[in-house]
Amino acid sequence: MQPYWTGVFPAVTTQFKQDQSLDLGATARHFEAIIASGVSGLIVCGSLGENQTMAPDEKCAVIRCAVETSRGRVPVLSGVAESSTAAAVQYVQDVKKLGASGVMLMPPMSYRGDPRESMTYLRTVAKRGGLPIMIYNNPISYANDITPALFAELADEPAFVAIKESSADTRRITEIHNAVGGRYAVFTGVDDLMLEASILGIDGWVAGSGIGFPAENQHLWDLTRAGEWDKARALYRWSQPLMKLDTHVHFIQYIKLIVQEAGLGSEWVREPRLTLVGEERERVLGIIRTAFAKRPSIPTR
Predict the structure, then answer these.
(1) Is the pLDDT assigned to residue 35 strictly greater than 70?
(2) For the chain, what is the domain count?
(3) Largest CB tally within 10 Å, which of 97, 118, 286, 293?
């Protein structure tokens, strides 16, 4: 019940057609390109995957697509963004039947609960869902904060196997280590803090913007594992303007634009989000195209 996930587990977009219907063919092609880069897992139907804009049957279709594309090469995790505890439990049970290896779970995004409510929610899903769980902590975007002390309190529940730490406070990495030792696999979830977090000690990275440049993204991770810090810094400096696009309110549109420019998908999003227009679109395209024009040479796998 307790796999030890490590490495790059990118959060992947859901590809849509211009009419906002699912494009499972394009989604599968992007999954395949990401797996080919050497990642250790896939996280689908998360925030970047526009989970909350999809109906339950659509989310299950994306999970099924990911599992079938992976063919057991990497574990497939699903984001959980249901608004009630019962719905979250049911969703985890559903994706388990589809072959998902685990889930990425955060406190409900639609309700800012107190710690007692958040802990009850997490524990209930863990006990009744039936899959290993990566707890997702993102207090900046989603209000609820799972502190190192709360992670220590949750350590007695075996279904919790990993932490995605996205508070943007790198001190949290050390605080988690001090609070819970090696109890969980610790992942960073903030792209442009990845190198800093690596120095402090992490087991994995839930990458976002790197799904548009998966080979370079994976190579950066590999350099940190090898302790080749000079090479890692150089590649990190190249990718940082792209990674910073993961920390904006329009991060889904921005990353989908990276994916489109890379020839790996399209920029279409589902309403209420709208595709970028005007000065904002041109500015983001400028950042992407400038970076891609200076794309570094990396070893091929």
Answers:
(1) yes
(2) 1
(3) 118
